[in-house]
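subagent[fold] <- orchestrator: predict structure for attached chain, return tokens only, no commentary.
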Amino acid sequence: MADHVHLLVGLPATVRLSDVMREVKAVSSRWMHEEIKDPGFAWQEGYGAFSVSASQRTEVRAYIERQEEHHRKRTFQEEYEELLRRSGVAYDPRHLW
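subagent[fold] -> orchestrator:
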């Protein structure tokens, strides 16, 4: 999608998610600036992460592959807030966007 990305990543317990996200953002930003020549590209400050059981991996992968279809029906913001609600995450909408 043009305004966000979904990643399905398996992390061992010894790897911090924040380290992975810092590296993903750094490497992809460098690539966007040097290879794509998009000087205006920038990641937002934060990120969202949800854990997924191994038994749901195939379903989550299919969900990610159908993003374009999902976003014809609702925006990323609507979808993200629903994920937060379904996951029981308390949030203040004023601090999301």
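orchestrator: received. Logging for downstream: Residues 17-34 form the longest helix (18 residues). Helices lie at 17-34, 57-65, 67-73, 76-86.
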